[in-house]
Amino acid sequence: MSEAAYLAGLVAAGAGALLGAALPARHRVPGAALASAVACLAALLGAGQVLASGRPFALRLAEVLPLTGAELSLDPLGALFVAATAVVGLAVSCYSVGYGAHAPAGRATTATLPAFLATVLLVPAAASVATFMVAWELMALTSLLALLADHRRRAEARDAAQWYAAMTHAGAAAILLGLVLLAAHAGGQGFTEIAAHRGRLSSPIASVVFVLTLLGFASKAGAVPLHVWLPRAHPEAPSPVSALMSGAMVNLGVYGILLVGEDLLGGGPLWWWLLVAALGVSSAFFGALHAAASTDAKRLLAYSTVDNVGLVLLGVGSAGALAAGGERAVAGLVLLAALFHLLNHSLFKGCLFLGAGAVQHAAGTRDLDRLGGLARRMPATAVLFGIGALAISALPGLNGFASEWLLLEGLLHGFASRSAVTEAALLAGVATLAITGGLTATAFVKALGVGFLGQPRTEGAREAKEVPPSMLAGMALLAAGCVALGVAPGVVLPGLERAVSSGLAGGAPRAARPGLGLALASWRGAVQPALVVSGLLAGIVLAWGALRLAPRPAELRRPRHAEAWGCGRESQTARMEITATSFSEPLQRVFADVLRPDHDLEVTHAAESRYFPEAISFHQRVDDAIERVVYRPVISAVARWGRVARRVPNGSVHRYLAFGFAALVLVLVVLA
Amino acid sequence: MRSGAELAVVEMAAGVVLAGAVLALWRKDLRALISLLGLQGAALATLAAALCVHDRDIGLGVVAGVVLLAKGLAIPGLLARVVRADPGSRETAPLVNVPASLVAAAVLVVLSYLVADPLTAVFPDPLTRLAPLGLATVLVGLFVLVTRRKAVSQIVGLLLVDNGVALVAFLLTAGVPLLVELGASLDVLLVVVVLQVLATTMRARFGHVDLDQLRELHD
Amino acid sequence: MTATLAPVATAGLGLPARAGLSLLQVAAVAVGGPLLVGLMGKIRARAEGRVGPPVTQVLLDLRKLLGKEAVRAEHTSAVAALAPLVLAASAALAAAIAPLVVTRPVMAAGADVFVVVYLLLMGSVALALGGLDAGTAFGGMGSSRAMTIGAISEPALLVGVLALAVQARTSNLPGIVAASLAHPGWLASPQRLLALGALVVVVIAETGRIPVDNPSTHLELTMVHEAMILECSGSDLALVSLGEAMRLGLLLGLVANLFFPWGVDASGSGLAVLIGLGALGAKTAAIATLIALVEVSTAKLRLFRVPELLAGGFVLAVVAVTTGLVTR
After folding, report:
1. Which chain B positions have a beta carbon within 8 Å of A424's beta carbon?
2. I need a labelling partner for A59 at 20 to 30 A (CA). Which of A245, A381, A382, A420 fits?
3. Does B99 touch chain C if contact means CB atoms closer than 8 Å?
4. How many domains are contained in chain C?
């Protein structure tokens, strides 16, 4: 039953791609969206059954792939990733109807979105090396095409696509190398065979496999320092694609690490997982800091994805390290928190990217410095974006808090492990959670406060209108998920626990007690978000009532509106408002050592006297320091080699034939 | 084996020594640095006294007295004289700024915990387990020595290292031989006297005690 | 020093009784917080040789403001109306569940220290959004500064709290207080002392006291918190001031009860509750006096030297956790 639903989902997504390519322009977008929505519902049904029952399914489709046949199986861990993808996909399908109506999309653009969705749904079910690599490369290809939708209009999109193509293919090569090495030593390419033979694998080989695949998966997940493509690609893609990339595709990097490290290799030594945790710490800190410094709404969201993936990797790494030290119970708790955070991140980041897309759609820009005052012009979008922003800032009552709390509890109880290295990692983890929590709150207060509150800074923002209902419905679905999982996180915990015990080699004991709220099973610790929310609401209503009943004359009861205080100035204009750049300026100065902002100040003096400036222009850019320090030298070195190598082919056919001949002889010599 | 009250005193004293070292990175005012040294000296003397009470070892009592006199009073007093001659002196521009130094100190503390872990695993004695605190004091002292410019702050760094070494010695040997501790304290006292003379001469010659500017002598 | 989970006396109190005790705590913080602000002002005044306003001045101001109309800036949205309500409600909820007068008020099982931390964050976010809502230069500047200080004080806060939670093996607030009551030796442990130092730094930053922010400044450019609430007036301002005073009272009360848990009532009998109230008042007044005396003798730090202070708090917290690990 579950496999039928899942397969129906894949087929429907494929049909969506065909419909998008075949239907006439007027029906193209709704047709593809309807098929994708059906696909997501079916996949959600299939994955939900696996998560609810804990029973995986396995399928073998001999005809689909030549030579090996496609092997599919979905265990609860994979089902969790399918479910997260399906929820985001459902919202994105709904949203794309209104989004597509705005700018008529071409056949290729309309067809790539369902195709991309299908591949993201497919990867977690792949059960052999060949199937996995085909699905993985299809995902890379379709996402690249989806990213290129706007390439004719914007050079940035082309640039981003180049970065993405280079990084994703290098990553795929590393994964392929690792998995082929693994399959060769295990004597089979099916994941069950490999897992059954892992005892025979020598530990250096296992480590090489893990590190190679980690490189590839970490680059897909956007872990620092392999993240450079992400803050370029996610902002430049059309917003539905950005939502799918950030909300679903990056998850699969985490899935890959768990698949290889735990499922195929069965745990492994402590240092593997410390490496993963270190990647997590650096990503979380670096991503949060850049999110707090960004002024482009989608770039901010992209860096925040780096931050949240970092937190998930921190959890995965700590869980692996604790499990390697034999602390299965607390390892299960930490992994539960990490997977829960991943699911939550899909919900709120999907919602936020769709919201940023709505703003771009309505105001024509996503630069926060050119927005403002949108809350009065597009109130529904403001509320939905606000829910996402407050959820990602981990405010109690929304889902981000639930998973961050679990993660904090997991790190806290890991201190009983008595392994000094693990304890140091946990301490670093708590410090990272703390600093990223504060920075994320700052980043999203900026996004919400500068983008939606205050006065509009440009004509575009002043003229903004609320977006169509289909777009709002897409965002509302995800925002409702944020609220539901925030108030009653207990409802998804049983499914998550099944995912954890299939994700951690050797299983894990139950970490949380059943119930609506969160209560730890083996330790003293609980929160009841539903009670917190009702307490808060009661407090707000009581305070509001008390204000109404305050002893004052009737004419003073209603608030009056008057001009704002401007230090004695006559009127306030939008030019006096704080901008996103100035909002993040104090943080930039505090963390100047890490961010390394570029300042450029030009003063033109009046002709009469140099004491009177005529014009002052100030430019500031915060580039990715890692890109500048690590990648630029590599790129320029490659370019230099390229220039050298260009001298070799001079156009002579004889020379080319000679190259081929020489290569053939060389191969023969090596073989001999 | 060891009674609770004395162990608690030892733990507290060791914690105070490390906290003093960390606070030395925080404060720029040289007078504050010197009073932190005095605090560390007093904590070390208290530690020795607690061990003396516990082990009923008169020698340790004498060590406690010597430590109090040398590290708690004499050395801070001498340094205070150097500073008083140059009022309002602050560590104005350390090579690494203060927040970064403090984060580095946090890393060093965790590092010394990691490094000392195998040792404490071999000797699971309640005193040996505290050794990472002394090691961390040494590391933080070295950090001060490397990153601060003023001659007085560098002397403070050296003394922090010395206090850390003394702490480790007390914890690992449960009572340094009297002679060794006496010798070490006197050595450091000598160094301080020499440096004081040097600093005074430097100020007389160049008008300041900023070591970075000594490079000009070489150039 | 390993902790054993100390038994917490539930004393068979029913839900209505515990809810009543929670309301008592909220009332105590709502009256006590403003009194503490007034006390700190009075002590500063006396130390500076002035007479100063009476200790009850903040309460009198609140009554006066409640009788006035709220004037909001043009261009504001619903956020301007909601922000003061959310601030006050989040502080009140935190005061209701924290073990201030009794160890187990309502929702004791879910009274987690991280919940309180994030409730405080909720109040800060609400205020910062309120500051941005009017679209003025000063409001946004205040929000930006307040969020920056909040962000960099978070590590010292959470790691400091971690030092306590690792020692008590739970992050449940009643659990920590009960464990401290059961282990009097902890009061003198170095990790407690260091964590106290870290958390005092955080409390000073979070409540905007000198040297981080000057609550009595009248110059917009040097303001942090005051700039953010420049557009609040009348009953809005009353709620904001009350919320801020409650946060101060709550934080001081938590510091008092986590580090010096004497007098916190575990039984719920009438006399014990009175003793609990008295102890809470005395302890918080003592801490407030100390903070006020330090304030008199310190100058406000430049905004860009505040990170030094908070990094100091962070490293104290890390040393506290490490010391806790080596001495356990």
Report:
1. 110, 113-114
2. A245
3. yes
4. 1
Contact (CB, 8 A) for C99 and C263: no
- The helix/strand/coil state of C183 is coil
CB crowding C260-290: b at 16 or more within 10 Å, else e: bbebbbbbbeeebbebbbebbbebbbebbee
Tell me the residue length of chain B.
219
User: What tokens does A537 get?
Assistant: 């609401």
Please provide the distance, in angstroms rounded to a whole number, between the alpha carbons at the two ends of chain A: 55
- C7 falls in which pLDDT band (50, 70, 90)? very low
User: Which among B19, B98, B113 has CB closest to C316?
Assistant: B19
pLDDT for C5: 42
Determine which helix (DSSP H) or strand (DSSP E) holds C313, and give its type and residue range.
Answer: helix C306-327
pLDDT score for C30: 96
Closest Cα to residue A268, out of A260, A277, A278? Answer: A260
Nearest to B105 by CA among A626, A417, C308: C308
First CA to last CA distance, chain B: 61
DSSP classification of residue A106: P
Residue A231 carries which side chain, given as an amino acid letter? P
Chain B nearest-CA residue for A593 = B100
Alpha carbon of B117: minimum distance to chain A alpha carbons (Å):
6
**CB B199 within 8 Å of CB B82:** yes
The mean pLDDT value for A189-216 works out to 92
Residue C116's φ and ψ, nearest 5 degrees, are -65, -45
Which residue in chain A is spatially nearest to B110 when comparing CA positions? A424
For helices B178-206 and B151-173, give the axis angle rounded to 10 degrees.
Answer: 170
| Lowest mean pLDDT segment, chosen from A589-593, B54-58, B138-142 | B54-58
Which of these, A41, A40, A43, A36, lies nearest to A57 by C-alpha position? A43
Spell out the alpha helix ranges (H) of C134-189. 137-168, 173-182
Task: Give a yes or no: residue C146 inside a domain.
Answer: yes
> Does C9 map to a domain?
no
Choose the closest CB to B113 out of A424, A428, A590. A424
Instruction: State the residue for tokens 């009476």.
Output: C54
With 0-12 CB in 10 A as exposed, 13-18 as middle and 19+ as buried, what is A522?
A: middle
Q: What is the pTM for the complete model shown?
A: 0.94
In a domain, C6, yes or no: no
Gap between the Cα atoms of C225 and C139, Å rounded = 9
- In Å, how far are A66, A201, A213, A216 from A176, measured between CA atoms? 18, 18, 8, 9
ipTM associated with this complex: 0.94
Tell me, what amino acid is at A113?
L
Q: Is C20 within the bounds of a domain?
A: yes
- A92-115 pLDDT tens trace: 999 999 887 766 667 888 899 999
Q: Which residue of C has its CA nearest to B15?
A: C190
C-alpha to C-alpha distance for A174 and C193, rounded to whole angstroms: 50
The residue range of the domain holding C87 is: 15-327
The C-alpha atoms of residue A366 and residue A276 are separated, in whole angstroms, by 33
H-helix or E-strand containing A620?
strand A613-621
With b for 16 or more beta-carbon neighbours within 10 A and e for fewer, the B81-111 pattern comes to: ebbeebeebebeebebebbebbbbbbebbbe
Residue A527 has phi, psi (to 5 degrees) of: -135, 145
Kindly report the nearest CA distance between residue B159 and chain A, in angstroms: 28
Question: pLDDT digits over C139-197, tens only?
Answer: 999 999 999 999 999 999 999 999 999 999 999 999 999 999 998 888 888 999 999 99
- The SS3 assignment for A61 reads strand
Rounded CA-CA distance C273/C286 in Å is: 20
A225 cis-preceded (ω within 30 degrees of 0): yes
